[in-house]
Amino acid sequence: METSKKKRVAIVEDIAGIRESLGELLNISDSYECTALYRSMEDALARISFDVPDVVLCDIGLPGMNGLDGMKILKEQYPALLIIMLTVYDDNDRIVEAICAGASGYLLKNTPPEKLIASIDEVVAGGAPMSPEIARRVMELFRTNPPPKVVDHDLTPHEVRLLKMLVDGHNYKTAASELGVSINTISFHMRNIYGKLQVHSKSEAVAKALRNRIV
């Protein structure tokens, strides 16, 4: 496969040895090329606009801004960006936060190289790969904390549509363009949505919409 046809992958990882090994793994693969190695989320946010990749492999435990907070910013700026968390953390809170914030996959760092490449393949194809340990935790979470019955919180059909667009990765600007209205109009509706859902941010609104099966 020609280099120009390869999918472009960036890595956000603070441990130099892991960061460089991942870059080498991607560059020797037939389908991917490593376009950037970032040692922190601040570094990634400052430079990624110069060379936006198709996929990001992102650690969570980073110096400074953690990977979860950084991922939320990246998804806000680049809704189509596919982000796979690659981490040592397997606790429920981080798993749920990552999924609700838009992670396309959640893998542990002990993932074998061939499985890592296969997982990127899966993400590019529209899947959501998880390490077996993470998948078991997600299944257990659903068994012990089943989603509540659908609650609409008195949202209007238009508000539900707008909320669905945010869940799908739109920001205020792209939602306004899609709906043919001004950003001020979107902001007005979002204030109403925040009040009805009793939340204070877009990420909280999206997380509550998913938990309560509003969209």
Task: Describe the protein's architecture and organization.
- The chain is globular, with a radius of gyration of 18 Å.
- The protein has a five-stranded parallel sheet with strand order 2-1-3-4-5, with helices on both faces.
- Helix 7 packs across helix 10 and helix 8 packs across helix 9.
- The chain is of the alpha/beta class and 215 residues long.
Write the H/E string, N to C: EHEHEHEHEHHHHHH
Beta strands, count? 5
Largest sheet, strands/sense/barrel: 5 strands, parallel
* Amount of beta strand: 5-15%
Short structural description:
The chain is an alpha/beta fold and 215 residues long.
List the helices and strands and how they pair.
Blueprint lengths: L6 E6 L3 H12 L4 E7 L2 H7 L7 E4 L8 H11 L4 E6 L4 H10 L3 E4 L4 H12 L7 H13 L12 H11 L4 H8 L3 H15 L4 H10 L4
Helix pairs in contact: 3-4, 7-10, 8-9
State the main characteristics:
5-stranded parallel beta sheet; 51% helix; 5 strands; single chain; alpha/beta
